[in-house]
Specification:
heterotrimer; A: MetI-like fold; 2 domains; two-stranded antiparallel sheet; flat; B: Rossmann fold; disordered N terminus; ABC_transporter-like_ATP-bd (chain B); hydrolase (chain B); translocase (chain B); transport (chain B); phosphate transport (chain B)
């Protein structure tokens, strides 16, 4: 019985329980609902909650723990000799899982029977080919021990699956039954169900914390793993980035960091003045007509997915810069370049900067403007000498937020900046960024446990720390700024 | 080369600094000021009094075209400053406001140093040639704003750090620094405590020697204390205008009398 | 001039003694600065709007042609001698004939066409003429025969996709000159294509296949479609909607209505605002590490994509929901509590329905963001080449699928320039979806916006 079906059954029990609970409450009051403490629906709801919530929480817990348990049991069966040179236990376990899945698929497709599997011997039957037929690719020829492990894996998962189904459905029925028994006219069904609902609400709000924990733990765990395989000092201070398939890679973050900062810098140079001036113009100068057209137009820029900007960089801006600037100036022949990515990234940031600046400028009190106009200042003098200095912390916060955006942006740089890790000053040269390398290292074909793949997690952690730091700093500055005028 | 017009002006000035003639103000569809005509004299403190929403502040803001900054506001009629219509198309409000300074209800020092607050006006209007000149103006303005002794040791500190009364005197000093001819004050003491109010009132009385001061106030006592002329506004109309002593002791219009005796307001 | 010279601090009347009606030099200078500054603003706005138009224009320019496609209509004789030598019509036997076995049928169809004196180019054999047809053609023919084995021996009129180069010829991508250098197409083939077009055999039509077909391999761009990607994106949106909306609304209700002011609440709030700013690629890493490696969910599956996008969308939905809950005035809550409703009843019976339009608007905008998100999906394996449509939900959520924005990225990585057109076309499709979603959000907001 699959987990999905079990969940469906639990939901069904809860659904039926709702109506049974309602009817029972109705009957217990002798048909006079005024005698009930709560409205009949609440009695039904209580039953449904008792039937569903514990059972579903248990299911989730079980599903999380089951693979860990099976893994620990099965991995005992793998001897050191079964691990090929240069591989690891993890890789063998991946194979075990794949073979086990493959056997399932083969049985379902009817190309193998359970008996065949039970008696199969790795050296006699060409398991790899047969699994290939049903679309499961296994890395190497299957060892006997691995096959045994896979069989054990299958057996254990089937057994545990059945155990889970029985326990979960039993739990659900028991919950429904207990809560049914408690129904009587003065049972405070509303309070009970409201408490349960409140617990669910609290649980939902913890998803945010769980997500953060998930991000931090997944990044940290694999990063530690990476630093066991690769020296941390090399990662942070090595000036070359040169991953090799066969080990001995140079995985220094500095060239990537340089590319990231360079592209972000170009983007900010482009976006900050334009965004700021656009916000100033729209809030202080523009006529109603201009505003009603220009403001939505700029907002549209914000709603466009980054993949669109990426394509724009790839097919339009890149070739344009190459043909009309880089080649005539003799500065390069690459259509992907720091400038390409930077400009397009800058366009993406314009609405971001402009809407943040707009907020910041509007937070400056009108009295400040009046004071300046009252002294005979012109609008631009007021803006440049009173509003902007007053709004400076807010603007700085906005720029930091934009910088954090630029550093974390992926698609535009993947499609616009290039893939060569270089420490160069020439903006027409292709360079690469942290995010680009995260994508390329994790979508490549290298094995997962190698430093070449794991480095992506270290890069991800660096990226996370930098952007988080910028954000917290920016939010702090902006909040301080707002408090000043509240 | 400006001698001739200046001569003409001096003749005018003796009489009236500002002449308003049939002024109408509209906020969108609301007729906020109805047909107001008034003459404001030089070297005089003129008080505008009246109940809330009577249009006294609106009218005050017409005198240096601060209403221009509000999109929906429309002004009709003539307001002459030294015989020149300030609503003439050729008039640059920026130039006008340098001549007609303004102090607001709430003290609104810029988030800059005390020195820069005062120096702001002279700088934008290009009144000085060098730092030394500017220093002189700043000191002179602060002295005339009766706040020099309190701030002379901390000119480089932010103006926002001062107390409410000090801030308001700083704002007055800031307005004086641009060497205006008329000083408009929109309820300058409403945000201040009694002691600060007394200081500012004293200051207003001193300023009369050099400027024409127009002050909007909702405090009749204040009007009686500081002004020589008083105008009473009610529902957008100028009800009565005359010598302060006469308005408060012997008002002609029954509405004025009701207000002064506290029956409306 | 006089202004400056008389600007001594001594004379109170000094600086402004000139007439108001004449602008002095200083004012003129200042006004010039004013208009310069204004001009900078106009330039900034112009650049922003220009960038928008350039962006949209470039996509439309490159992509709109992907909705048109050259088709060739041929009468194909389904030769029993080639397809079913025994004449038994046994499906298994027929299935043994591979796609290659069908190519000669198309060549034969051209042979027949060449009987027409108007058609035929010197030195172009029927076999080479058959290369006008997409490599997908024989496969389609085979599928048709396997579905209708009775038609063997008949002549069937069949509408084939023209090959990418021929298609490109009618879209200006391929010319006679480039064809000379191209080993995939010859000028003779293009001449023949012109003749066929003249004869009405080759026609340019609306390309429904672009929306319904699955992706195709590197050398048959003309057959590549968005079907799997659209379905995959749709599945992901269902997952996002089913998870992010209830969780987001529940979390917002708790935080806005019930949460006590304490450090735990503070931590949750800080968490939410920070999650909104975490780079999307980091969510991809989370998905890879937690959902795929740890929880063992399959790669490239819409369920994983949906889960990752849910986590990314949650902050948006929570922020929007809290804003609209906050906008419901406390008097409504007081009124409900005053007549004896519990706090929970007040919230669910009164506050939530009033906040619903705002919540819905926020949700749609969150979904639109999720629909365009690319980077995290790359990491959870959605770049894989998927030719099979995922099955119906719920199993379909676990089948490999593509996603619209990832399909775009995928196509840009291929060398044939025809894929640039496809990628831009896919963007147009994506943008149309986004436009529809945003339009719905705007209509909802206009329609139900309430001012208290």
């Amino acid at each position: 019985m699959s987990a999905g079906l079990v969940i469906l059954i639990v939901l069904l029990i809860a659904f039926v329980g709702f109506f049974l609970g309602r009817t029972r409450a109705y009957k217990s009051a002798g048909g006079d609902i005024r005698k009930l403490h709560s409205r009949p629906n609440y009695y039904g709801l209580t039953v449904a909650i008792y039937a569903a919530v514990p059972a579903l929480l248990f299911t989730i817990l079980w599903l999380l723990l089951q693979p860990l348990y099976i893994e620990s049991q099965v991995s005992k069966m793998i001897d050191a000799v079964d691990i090929p040179d240069g591989g690891s236990l993890d890789l063998v376990m991946t194979d075990v899982r794949r073979i086990s899945d493959g056997l399932d698929v083969a049985v379902n497709a009817g190309t193998m029977t359970e008996d065949q599997i039970a008696t199969m011997r790795a050296d006699l039957s060409d398991l790899r080919a047969r699994l290939g037929e049903v679309g499961i690719a296994v890395a190497s020829d299957v060892q006997q021990n691995v096959l045994d492990a896979a069989r054990e894996y299958r057996k254990l998962s089937t057994k545990l699956q059945i155990a889970m189904s029985v326990i979960v459905i039993g739990l659900s029925l028991a919950g429904a039954f207990i809560s049914m028994m408690r129904i009587q006219p003065d049972y405070r069904a509303r309070n009970t169900s409201e408490h349960a609902i409140k617990a669910l609400l609290i649980l939902s709000s913890f998803v945010a914390i769980l997500t953060t924990l998930g991000i931090i733990s997944s990044l940290l765990f694999e990063t530690v793993h990476f630093f066991q395989l690769y020296r941390a000092s090399d990662f942070f201070f090595n000036l070359t980035w040169n991953p090799q398939f066969r080990g001995g890679s140079d995985l220094g973050i500095l060239p990537l960091l340089w590319g990231t900062l360079y592209v972000s810098f170009v983007a900010l140079i482009f976006a900050v003045p334009i965004g700021l001036l656009a916000a100033i113009y729209l809030s202080e100068y523009a006529s109603k007509n201009v505003r009603s057209f220009a403001k939505p137009a700029i907002e549209v820029l914000a709603g466009i997915p980054t993949i669109v900007y990426g394509l724009f960089a790839l097919i339009t801006v890149g070739p344009l810069l190459r043909d009309y600037f880089a080649q005539p100036l003799g500065m390069g022949n690459s259509s992907s370049s720091v400038l390409t990515a930077g400009i397009v990234l800058g366009v993406m940031l314009i609405p971001f900067v402009s809407s943040l600046s707009d907020d910041v400028i509007n937070a400056v009190p009108q009295a400040m403007r009046d004071g300046s106009y009252g002294l005979g200042a012109t609008k631009s003098e007021t803006i440049k000498q009173v509003i902007l200095p007053a709004a400076l912390p807010g603007v700085v916060g906005a720029v930091l937020l934009a910088a954090s955006r630029a550093i974390g942006e992926t698609m535009i740089v993947v499609m616009g900046a290039g893939a060569a890790a270089k420490l160069s000053l020439n903006p027409f040269e292709a360079m690469t960024t942290i995010t680009v390398k995260i994508v390329s290292q994790l979508t490549g074909d290298t094995e997962f446990a190698s430093p070449e793949t794991l480095v992506a997690f270290a890069l991800g952690l660096s990226l996370f720390v930098v952007t988080l730091g910028l954000n917290i700093l920016a939010l702090y500055i902006v909040r301080k700024y707002r408090e000043q005028y509240e | 080369m400006y001698d001739a017009p200046n001569l003409e002006k001096t003749v005018d000035q003796k009489e009236f600094k500002i002449t308003a003639d049939n002024v109408q103000v509209f906020y969108g569809d609301t007729h906020a000021i109805k047909d107001v005509s008034v003459q404001i004299e030089d070297n005089t403190v003129t008080a505008f009094i009246g109940p809330s929403g009577c249009g006294k502040s609106t009218f005050l803001r017409c005198l240096n075209r601060m209403n221009d900054t509000i999109d929906i506001c429309r002004v009709e009629g003539n307001i002459l400053l030294d015989g020149e219509n300030i609503y003439d198309k050729k008039v640059d409000p920026v130039q006008l406001r340098a001549k007609v300074g303004m102090v607001f209800q709430k003290p609104n020092p810029f988030p800059k140093s005390i020195y820069d607050n005062i120096a702001y006006g002279p700088r934008i209007h290009g009144l000085t040639r060098n730092k030394a000149d500017l220093d002189i103006i700043v000191e002179k303005s602060l002295r005339r704003g009766a706040i020099w002794d309190e701030v002379k040791d901390r000119l480089d500190q932010p103006g926002t750090g001062l107390s409410g009364g000090q801030q308001q005197r700083l704002c007055i000093a800031r307005a004086i620094a641009t060497e205006p001819e008329v000083l408009l004050m929109d309820e300058p003491c409403s945000a201040l405590d009694p002691i600060a109010t007394a200081q500012v009132e004293e200051l207003i009385d001193e300023l009369r020697q050099d400027y024409s001061v127009v002050i909007v106030t909702h405090s009749m006592q204040q009007a009686a204390r500081v002004s020589q002329k008083t105008a009473f506004f009610h529902l957008g109309n100028l009800v009565e205008y005359g010598e302060t002593s006469q308005i408060f002791t012997n008002p002609i219009d029954p509405r004025t009398e009701s207000y002064i005796t506290g029956r409306i307001g | 001039m006089t202004d400056l010279s008389t600007s001594g601090a001594a004379a109170p009347r000094g600086p402004h003694s000139s007439s108001l009606l004449v602008q002095d030099a200083n004012t003129r200078k200042r006004n010039a600065a004013e208009s310069r500054f204004r001009l900078y603003g106009v330039i900034a706005i112009a650049i922003a709007i220009l960038a928008l138009f350039a962006l949209l224009g470039s996509i439309l320019y490159n992509g709109s042609s992907s909705f048109r496609q050259a088709f060739v209509v041929l009468d194909v004789y389904l030769d029993p001698a080639k397809l079913d030598k025994d004449g038994t019509r046994d499906l298994e036997k027929i299935a043994k004939v591979s796609t290659f076995g069908y190519a000669p049928l198309i060549a034969a169809a051209f042979e027949t066409k060449f009987e027409d004196p108007e058609i035929g180019v010197e030195g172009l054999s029927a076999k080479n003429a058959a290369k006008l047809i997409s490599k997908e053609g024989p496969a389609e023919l085979r599928r048709y025969v396997l579905a209708n084995p009775d038609m063997i021996g008949e002549t069937v009129q069949f509408e084939f996709l023209a090959s990418g180069r021929i298609d490109g010829y009618y879209k200006g991508r391929v010319t006679m000159e480039t064809a000379k250098l191209d080993k995939n197409v010859s000028p003779e083939q293009l001449q023949l294509a012109d003749q066929l077009k003249e004869a009405g055999v080759l026609a340019i039509k609306f390309n429904t296949g672009f929306l319904t077909r699955a992706d195709a391999s590197e050398n048959r761009p003309e057959a590549a479609g968005l079907g799997v990607a659209i379905l995959g994106s749709f599945y992901m949106m269902i997952v996002v909607l089913c998870l992010a909306l209830p969780i987001g609304v529940a979390a917002s209700i708790y935080l806005e209505e019930f949460a006590p002011k304490n450090w735990i609440t503070d931590i949750i709030e800080v968490n939410i605002s920070n999650l909104a700013a975490v780079p999307s690629i980091v969510f991809g890493i989370l998905g890879l590490a937690i959902f795929i490696n740890f929880a063992g969910l399959p790669q490239s599956a819409p369920i994983v994509g949906g889960l990752v996008l849910t986590l990314m969308t949650l902050p948006t939905i929570i922020i929007a929901t809290r804003a609209s809950l906050k906008a419901v005035p406390p008097s409504i809550r007081d009124a409900a509590l005053g007549i004896g409703a519990s706090k929970m009843q007040a919230v669910f019976h009164h506050v939530l329905p009033l906040a619903a339009p705002g919540i819905l608007t926020g949700t749609i905008i969150g979904l639109a963001q999720a629909l365009g998100e690319t980077a995290p999906l790359l990491l959870i394996g959605m770049v894989a080449f998927v030719r099979d449509f995922p099955s119906a939900p719920p199993e379909g959520f676990f089948d490999p699928a593509a996603a619209l924005p990832v399909q775009v990225y995928n196509w840009t990585q291929r060398s044939d320039p025809a894929f640039v057109e496809r990628a831009s076309g896919a963007i147009i499709v994506l943008m149309v979806f986004l436009l529809i979603m945003n339009a719905i959000a705007i209509v909802l907001r206009r329609r139900f916006e309430r001012r208290w």
